[in-house]
Design goal:
The structure is a homodimer of 216-residue chains. The first copy, chain A, is an all-alpha fold. Chain A is built from eleven helices and no strands. The first copy, chain A, binds a DNA duplex (30 and 30 nucleotides) through residues 2, 6-8, 11-12, 15, 36-38, 46-50, 52-53, 56-58.
DNA sequence: GATGAAACATTGACTCAGTATATTTTCTGC
DNA sequence: GCAGAAAATATACTGAGTCAATGTTTCATC
């Protein structure tokens, strides 16, 4: 092994980066559906096959970053302390991520991230892809909880409750940042929101939503 | 309008049925990915275009029946009595569906349904499609709850909790029936399972899953 | 440095899902 | 029967993703 990283690896990262940036710019300019992979390849100065080598599908060009974090929730639960509850583990990890403004929970507003989010919101097939990431995380968590010895069916319910709260929070971040708020502003009251969301999971829905306000 | 149904409508239903059955048989025989739409069309004695007229996509050939029920949960909540909680509404509807052995919650074991389920379990792209149906139902429910006046973010969490419990129950039905149990057997203790699942949503996860049993 | 082997990129041809258009068949109401 | 509507078809196309064969780089070893 050579020192550092190796020229090969560096070039590979650079090519991947170039393809990704090129694609995001073209998508933003003309919309996801109106850009073909062949065009992206040409603009990034590689062959079409190379694009598929780096990103398995056209959708991955936009959603790859978020797919790298599907394992985060399950990791929080797997690595929790002996006496910690599942809710505590997921909530604690999420609060820590807020502290460090983790981009994977939506707490950043750099232009490239905004591009990607806008794109996802405006493109049905990308929204589907995002919901796939959610259900994958949920499935992994359900498996882990079931493996810890509980009823697998209740484990699946628990996984839905936990990932549901987490995803709702992330979506709220995305929504507000796309509405124009600064990442700082969204992060400021994120902890408070987090407590409310997980409290609803920890203490139950009870008679939610209380007396109906708008029957229609 | 002629009496009854009209020859045109009947033929249309029959053609759709024939395409659907043909597709399911071919898929079961050789796997979803190894049957082309052109083959299905030929086997059903129609043109490829006709297949896409009846079923928008190849996936719909398998998942269309389940997509007709994405609105069920949101309907339960929308049409609930004035004082009823959301949990009560969803649980009550589900218990009623158990009573009548509703196929849409997995309580049937006729061969064609088994085929479809097996196919979905064995085909990643169809699993994705199923998870899409889930997230669609969840999104609609979140919207309704938010429209009733609560905090939209908490409404999204509540929707995840409710649909999570419901989906876990349906998956359990599917799992057991695919494992060879009779629909009757699965239905027999379905009500009890339903109570446990929704209790976990109504009363909260608390310190779930209690002391860790299998740390690894 | 030179060299051989693996890894990677490229090319071009291919399959198949899905769309568009124009045409023909098939049913319905009169 | 016949006019008009609705559905089915043939045909041709776009674009995603795959495959096989062939270059081209990179690196490890001599």
């Amino acid at each position: 092994m050579t020192a550092g990283e190796g020229l090969r690896e560096r070039k590979k990262r650079e090519t991947g980066m170039r393809i990704w940036r090129t694609a995001l710019d073209l998508f933003t300019e003309r919309g996801f559906d109106h850009v073909s992979v062949a065009e992206i390849a040409a603009a990034a100065d590689v062959s079409k096959m190379t694009v598929f080598n780096y990103f398995g599908t056209k959708e991955d060009l936009v959603t790859a970053p978020m797919m790298n974090h599907v394992g985060d929730v399950v990791r929080a639960v797997r690595e929790r302390a002996a006496g910690e509850s599942a809710v505590d583990a997921v909530r604690r990890q999420f609060l820590e991520m807020i502290e460090v403004r983790d981009p994977s929970i939506g707490l950043n507003d750099d232009p490239r991230s905004l591009q990607a989010r806008q794109l996802i919101q405006n493109t049905p097939v990308l929204l589907q892809r995002a919901s796939l990431a959610f259900s994958q995380a949920q499935g992994e968590l359900a498996e882990l909880l079931a493996a810890e010895g509980g009823d697998p069916m209740l484990a699946a319910v628990a996984a839905a409750q936990l990932t549901g709260a987490r995803n709702a929070l992330i979506n709220e971040h995305h929504r507000r940042i796309l509405a124009g708020e600064s990442a700082q502003g969204v992060a400021d009251d994120a902890a408070e929101r987090t407590e409310r969301a997980f409290a609803q999971v920890e203490n139950g829905l009870g008679s939610y939503p209380g007396p109906k306000r708008a029957p229609q």
